[in-house]
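hiii so um. not sure if this is the right channel but i have a protein structure encoded as tokens and i wanna go backwards to a sequence. like what aa goes where. can anyone help
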């Protein structure tokens, strides 16, 4: 078996394209399992709130924020489950590359949902516990941190890795 090129054109593991797609699919499924646990914890927390005595004291803003968080949790759960549904539809149709590519995109959307859900839940908790301005500040700050962590850090790491690993990039500098 000869070396194969990865998505950047570099040679890497000694695996066929099919083996690479199988490995990528397994890695995506593991990432989705981690995401699912986080969403389940946040969604479970949200679903217990209406049964608390203090829930009746929420103002209109807090109820809307709560219901928005519930919708985001449900949609994020759907996005986490979507690659499994796609896999069932594409199973045995020799469309593994399409499956892995679409699951990658879907997983990125699910990460965005988790960022919104985390920020929204923090905003709700801070709003109820400390006040509206603290809730808005906490939600906005957490969302900003999540965007940096989920978007800009991976982009920066990709640029660093690409710049250091590709000889052509080093020659241009």
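sure thing!! here u go:
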């Amino acid at each position: 078996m000869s070396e194969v090129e990865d998505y950047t054109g570099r040679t890497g593991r000694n695996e066929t394209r099919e083996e690479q797609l199988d490995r990528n699919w397994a890695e995506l499924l593991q990432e989705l399992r981690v995401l699912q646990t986080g969403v389940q914890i946040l969604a479970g927390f949200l679903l217990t709130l209406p049964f608390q005595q203090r829930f009746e004291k929420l103002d209109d803003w807090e109820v809307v924020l709560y219901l928005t968080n519930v919708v985001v949790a449900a949609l994020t759960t759907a996005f986490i489950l979507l690659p499994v549904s796609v896999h069932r539809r594409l199973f045995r149709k020799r469309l593994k590359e399409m499956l892995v590519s679409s699951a990658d995109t879907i997983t990125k959307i699910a990460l965005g949902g988790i960022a919104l859900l985390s920020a929204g839940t923090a905003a709700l908790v801070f709003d109820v516990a400390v006040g509206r301005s603290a809730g808005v500040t906490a939600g906005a700050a957490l969302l900003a941190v999540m965007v940096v962590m989920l978007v800009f850090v991976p982009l920066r790491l990709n640029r660093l890795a690409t710049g250091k690993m590709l000889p052509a990039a080093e020659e241009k500098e």
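oh and Residues 1-6, 168-173 have pLDDT under 50 and may be disordered.
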